[in-house]
Amino acid sequence: MDKPGLTTDETGLTRCTWRTAAAQYPDYHDHEWGVPVADDIALYEKICLEGFQAGMAWITILRKREHFRRAFEGFDFRRVALYTERDVERLMADPGIVRNRAKIVSTINNARRACELVDESGSLAAWLWAFEPGTEERPALVDLAYWTGNPTSPASVRLSKALKKRGWTFVGPTTMYAFMQAMGMVNDHLEGCACRQPIEDLRRQFRRPEL
Q1: I need a surface site. Which of 92, 153, 193, 207 has the fewest CB within 10 A?
Q2: Mean pLDDT, the chain, integer
Q3: What pTM was computed for the model?
Q4: Which one of 25, 44, 50, 129 is the catalytic residue?
């Protein structure tokens, strides 16, 4: 019998059950979720997409991700920082993305804040990875109770507060925890998931960017 939160497939591999919830999830779960990322543009993109997800299911954003990338010029934040009201109206008319004015404006605002941060510290990745939680802060995912409600962590609260202080928007603690999970700052593949140890190995080998 599978443990709570885990499902064994016909090949005998056990993975997190959420992997089976949509056709796009297996590849995302197996090859992307939790893999450490140090690329500034990829990190900015993920913050923005997590912001667009607020109040929605992640699968909705994942299905639209390629269109988001085209609409926002690959999430090159130096390009997005130059967007004007004309671009806001262009994006509001684009059915391939989530047409929420506040979230679109937030993406442009956050691009400008990202430029400021990089100009100041040299690297968005180094600044963000400085908030990686220590081992003592990482929650033990022993059952599905952890996944109920809106999960946060002390580290995601700190990151959220620091970003908001710098003027970023749509970066609440829950959103930032989801960001940390996806970008490999924590490994939340459940114990028993076939991906947990490979992700842990990648995290061990990963060279953290330094300020």
Answers
A1: 207
A2: 92
A3: 0.92
A4: 50
